[in-house]
Batch of 4 targets.
Target 1
Amino acid sequence: MAATGNVTEIIFLGFSQNENVQKALCVMFLLMYAAVLLGNGFIVVTIVASKGLASPMYFFLGFLSLVELCYCSVTAPRLILDSFIQRRVISLHGCITQIFFLHFFGGTEIFLLTVMAYDRYVAICKPLHYVTVMNRRACGLLVGAAWGGGLLHSAGQTVLIFQLPLCGPNVIDHYFCDVHPVLKLACSDTFLPSLLIILNGGSISVVSFAVLLASYTVILRSLRSRTSAGRRKALSTCASHLAVVGLFFIPCSFVYMRPCVSLPVDKIVAVFYTVVTPLLNPVIYSFRNAEVKDAMRRLTRRKAVWGEK
């Protein structure tokens, strides 16, 4: 049964009621969102257009950048637009739609980061079998599984919220719709839905973290027998991946792997996994990579030549 009750729209309190603060935040988030679009979009275009970036690592990186772009777009545009108005309102169905896509892209990103850790494990620990194990079909199936896993996770979270009777008051102290703030609007017992929401998000985080931990434990052990040059190259790639994992997993774990209560700091923490991580991903994972930078330069020169013609 769909959500019932007297709530048909939800009001966001946002970051601040001060008009000057809101304008400053609008400019800041507008610049950050533009950087997310340009950075991640350029990576996707570069990987698609460059034959030299055809390895599985860049295949997964291209999808990660696409997911980051979509993930940030679920919340950032609304946050920027709401900075211009005093009464920040979203319909109930719009709120539930936002929850669905937030967890769809967020869950997909978690699974993709796990897949990328497995890819690095095979590349470093099983180099002779890498081409066979990580063939085109296997890579496609892994990416499809990541999207499918994100969809199942999101559907579970959304159904749990959608079936709750929401009686209000219809004001949430956040800047977007998420499961914890919306649960506070329910006029029925939320213990079981809260538990299921934690188990849903927690199981994904725990399993993914276990795979990541196992992969990098084996990788670090195997690097002891490598030459110093090979060790540095492998550690550079792994360090970039671990930095992205940390920036995303730590804030998400803080919000979703605890009892369903909203804290004042949640809004600031949410900025990290919805905006800051997508913003830093191109810098950490791509612009420090020599092959990606070379491909970007070639693509830029090619576009310049076509422009002159």
Target 2
Amino acid sequence: EAVPENHLIGPRTSQLIHSGRKQLLLRTTSGSMEFKMKGSDNQEKLVYQIIEDAGNKGIWSRDIRFKSNLPLTEINKILKNLESKKLIKAVKSVAASKKKVYMLYNLQPDRSVTGGAWYSDQDFESEFVEVLNQQCFKFLQSKAEAARDSKQSPMVQRNSSFATSHEVWKYICELGISKVDLSMDDIETILNTLIYDGKVEMTVIAAKEGTVGSVDGQMKLYRGVNPVIQPTGVVRTPCGLCPVFEDCHEGGEISPSNCIYMTEWLDF
């Protein structure tokens, strides 16, 4: 039910939520939220609730203004106050280099905000990606060479030359070359670039439930190969090998117009 903006909130039981241009809704809230916001006024509680609802993807101040219908000067004052209390934090987003999103202080930002393992302070770590690319390929090469040296039957050699993404992930983690925690998905992204480059092939096999590295009863296996023919023109372009291809768009942090690798490829 709509209530006037100056209606008092019951302690530990309700929270003002903006609904429409000149009305607020009253809803129940948790005691923990009320405890954190003890001593705050209604406007500050409203902004906090909007930020909390945004989760670990955060929310821009512009959207906070739209949802709360508060003046920008008042929102900036509230945001600064909540930050000083360490209830919220501002996080730079790779989606827009000059904008920050706000989220609760104890949340880990979503990959869509930070860019994941391939970014540091909004900058794409191309050298780091290249090192991972080389080390993953080196591991698969060594496994293939060990299989060939085993002098077993060709079929056994071929099967033993494959490695799971979990094995590659474990090898990279043991090298200690990454300052951030890499996930299996991160490693599979790198392995995909090697597949596009014609250096690695992948096969999918059935796996028992609970097997390390398996998903939905299936497991991906990778092996290093010597390309028989050169990759196609599309794959040889930086786009064919780029692990953040899906994040590349005009006007973004990663854009075709400012891609130094595309420039080098065209000059070559």
Target 3
Amino acid sequence: MEMLGHFNYWVSIILMMTGFYAVIASTNMVKKLIGLGMFQTAVFLLYISIGKVRGGTAPILIDGVAAGDVSFSNPLTHVLILTAIVVSIATTALGLAIVVRIREAYGCIEEDETIAMDMADERAEDAMPPTIADAKRRLGWLPRSQAASRAPLPAQLPDRKPAASRPLAPRKGPTGRRKSAPRKGKGRP
């Protein structure tokens, strides 16, 4: 009889474990979000059932009734759950927006398929030809410490002199006139 007296706790636990299983076992991202919603709802039910006292009323004092004669339900859990429901809705909306974006990018919402596509992209990037910066570095046009860019290498590199031996273009100011280099002099390095 004692077990049946806590029926609301058992319902919460069963809902919680069902939602947890859906999050862990499913590869479909929408089903994962549904499982997450079930889990959150089970937590809400658990907290609301904890706050309810059998025979208790709302904690509103009426003139002429002593506080010792009446038992009250705790309103704090209900208020906290109202906040949690708002957070739950926002989490679900954000999750659905991310799933829509993943569907646009990958063409599916199955987790294992998207991971397989990412792995294939990484293997393809490893097999890519060297970048322009790598080719310039090998020819001595760039210092070895400069990071490589990810721009693809064109079919042929133009014949150019190394950067150190090329003359610098004249610098021009906003008026279009050539600016002179700063002079060394008094108070200047």
Target 4
Amino acid sequence: MPAVGASTATASSAAGSGAPELLLVVAGAHLRGQPLHHQLAERSARFVQATSTAPEYRMFALDTVPAKPGVLRVPEGGAALAVEVWALDAAAFGTFVAGLPAPMAIGRVRLAGGRELPGFLVEPFALEGAQDITAHGGWAAYREATA
């Protein structure tokens, strides 16, 4: 995972402490205003930017509680999805990732412009029978359309 200052990260040090931050791309239930965002807030995560993925991903509505999406990189037929980038210190990043339940996973997510950062993906087995919601362009838009 790139620390700040590495070629793929652009955040600053944590609260001026000089401690490196790790960047994390979130696409669903951890977005601002979503039900699991508190897990980032409890770790003093810092919002870096709202952006989108490269047009290489599909998004699926998973049958989970709370509701969350699964993001999968695909060789063709993908689209750009709305995401957020957050910065966490290394310890917070570690506890966050250690607590992720299956089928969620952290992998490399390519953003618009080509930069790759650690971010949320889903294990493909979880997509059997899941609704493809890619056309909404992101989780918040899907939730708004189905509210």
